[in-house]
Amino acid sequence: MTFELTKEYVERIEVAIEARDEATLKAEMEELFPADINTVLYELKPEAAHYLFTLLDTEVGAEILANIDDPADRRQFLANFSSAEITHYIELFDSDDAADLLKEQSIKVREEVIALLKDREQARFILDLLPYDEDVAGGLMQKELVKANVNWTVNECIEEIRKQAEDVEKVYAVYVIDDNQTLLGLVSLKNLVLARKNTKIGTIFDDDILYVETYRPVEEVVEIMQRHDLDAIPVVNVQKRLLGRITIDDVIDVITEKAEEDIQAIAGITGEVEEDDTVWAQAKARLPWLLVGVAGSLMAATVIRSFEGELGKVAALAMFIPIMGSTGGNVGIQTASLIVQTLSDKSGLEISWKERLRKVVLIAILNGLIIGLLAGLYVWVSNETALFWVVSLSLLAVVLLASFMGTITPLLLNRIGINPAIASGPFITTANDLVGIGTYFLIAHYLLKM
Amino acid sequence: MTFELTKEYVERIEVAIEARDEATLKAEMEELFPADINTVLYELKPEAAHYLFTLLDTEVGAEILANIDDPADRRQFLANFSSAEITHYIELFDSDDAADLLKEQSIKVREEVIALLKDREQARFILDLLPYDEDVAGGLMQKELVKANVNWTVNECIEEIRKQAEDVEKVYAVYVIDDNQTLLGLVSLKNLVLARKNTKIGTIFDDDILYVETYRPVEEVVEIMQRHDLDAIPVVNVQKRLLGRITIDDVIDVITEKAEEDIQAIAGITGEVEEDDTVWAQAKARLPWLLVGVAGSLMAATVIRSFEGELGKVAALAMFIPIMGSTGGNVGIQTASLIVQTLSDKSGLEISWKERLRKVVLIAILNGLIIGLLAGLYVWVSNETALFWVVSLSLLAVVLLASFMGTITPLLLNRIGINPAIASGPFITTANDLVGIGTYFLIAHYLLKM
């Protein structure tokens, strides 16, 4: 039942486009859901995609356009469209999707489209939304919602839904307001269906509801909706006037994007690249963190050089350079990622710094002793007994230091407003590499003198 | 407006519990949403939490119990409850939540609770769901839904919703079936509100809908619902009989869990631990991958030892051991994480192996040349000119090899059914450390002989 895109299918569509075979193309697209047509368009050359797109129903086209996630992809796709053409689809958009699309366009296109919109209420909605950044509640909200005055009856309320039906795709609930547009509560669609026609809304609405202000950070909105299993949440201004609502589908997109960003940050990739981006874009996205790694390693080279004397005396010292670096890196990543996880879970008591460090130190001692002893055993077996204490003690010290840095770095980054996930990536590995190797040679320096 | 848990608040509640001050506690809890009460309970000692819990309204208690995510936490919390007490809350659960909770309990408790349930339809629903694993659609679905025969009128349909209203918390849509319970389509709640009372359902329902079979993997369900912005999806058996539905809140939980798992896998933490777990649990979860790292580094030590001759001749060789290991590790993680990202995005044409490798190699050459030249410059400046070609060429080779391994490993793991995210973690770092150092000394061996 789900659509599987194959190379053969794409080729068949390309041939039909080449032949300008409208009937076949329309019939083929008729079979697909909009999201699937989108994946087909994505595989076609720009002009071919544009041609196929113009054959679609306007509603289907609008749904596809609204759901292209990558702003760069969408801007490129729309490069062939006139402002009038864009307006034609925008007319069927929800206000939040329209504002998102127009923010990606030049100011000229943006103003042309807004001027061309026939529905002046929609134009006003979009203008209301344009100023909000995408990282606050106002940037996620849509203006379309059904609201009812607290003095209305259920019947008046259903009449209002009927009037709005075309504009509000998913109703979920009717928001209840007073004469000043102040949010008082809501009636779920289910309760509206079940209530008698002449009941007053004031007697059946739920006044104990959650809402957010326009300026709330998106992460807070996501957390509230997820914790309380909400399908939609109303958005108000500082006077608690109802301005819009945020629906669950937008929240899911935020969650998915955040997860991808975190993973890319941990992996040391800057910006949002994907495997099918150009070679140049991918190389550029990787280079910055690789260079951080190179810089760190060259500092390590300088450290090693300064201990040339020790290396000259005990050449076997070189054998354990890798274990110091990699153990430091691995412990640092593990520690940092747990801290990042706690930071992103905002429910529950904040763990105190003291308690945090106490645990981190205990875990580090436990793991440090085990690793230190194992490596010591290897030293013993390979007949480098002079290095037993150097290697074992260094590893314990490295695990302790790396745990400490893995704890501190994300907490500090978070405090100064940088995504702490980047602390779990190449940054921490590089820093710990360097610290690990430095510690090792210092310990060797003192122990071998004795 | 959102609840912030403070130490002082928890202490105040603890004092009130100590004093068995029912009135204060009830008043305080009245102020909170169930999800917030849950975070309070989590901070209390088991007996205190149990006492506070029994003071809550049964509905609130049921909502809290249904939403404890961690099975171990919930089992522990319920350890003080009799089967009759558990049944008391389960009676208010949706069937999917009830089945999830009972799967965590002993067979004895499970059977006692099912026998004690007064609503025999609910008991049958739960028994229907118990056999499904949590990683297929059947394990996510709930039996509660509103269905209507295609021959009914809108009025009969609304009567049915009225009857079911208590059991079905969020309706979203009414599923339309024929006399054999075969799924034909659906009517959205909105359209039902808008239709005339005596309209036949058969004339207004949407027959072009998405559904899933019980055996579909959870990831597929998530992907379908996310791509098509669905609030709920019906679940059918192989004969397309309607068995249940999956709602969006469950899907969000799956997405969040998956993201956390991936990050832990990349960070090299096995199992699901959190920062507030015990020292022992955390140490255990980290040790396996640390040991893999240690094993790899000790192999690297053995490799280095076998090149003692080269190290004796050119002591400066030791200086560049860290850069080989860390560059290999960083490149490997970057490459693997992009592959993992592509693998989890199932829409779009699969990228062919040839195309994949072509790009990977080009990116590697580009970045390898830049890094190799920079490091070469350092070699030059630090007057180790003999090592210029050794270091530069080794780095190019290391970047190429690490890119290759970072591409192949997740693809292979994915093919044999292991979460490819673990390939982006300590595994790839360790392997690349080893390969990097080996390559370096081999190249040194041949170039220095000349």
Structure description:
The structure is a homodimer of 450-residue chains. Chain A has 450 residues and is mainly alpha-helical. The first copy, chain A, folds into three domains: 7-135, MgtE N-terminal domain-like (MgtE N-terminal fold), CATH 1.25.60.10; 147-253, CBS-domain; 279-449, Orthogonal Bundle (Tetracycline Repressor, domain 2), CATH 1.10.357. Chain A contains 22 helices and six strands. In chain A, the strands form two sheets. Chain A has a three-stranded mixed sheet. A three-stranded mixed sheet of chain A has the order 4-5-6. Chain A is elongated. The mean pLDDT of chain A is 89. Chains A and B meet through α3, α12, α13, α15 and α16 of A and α3, α12, α13, α15 and α16 of B.
- Based on the structure given, which CATH architecture of the largest domain in chain A is correct? Orthogonal Bundle
- Count of discrete alpha- or pi-helical segments spanning 4 or more residues of chain A: 22
Structural class of chain A: mainly alpha
Given this structure, which CATH class of the largest domain in chain A is correct?
Mainly Alpha
Characterize the main sheet of chain A: 3 strands, mixed
- Basic shape of chain A: elongated
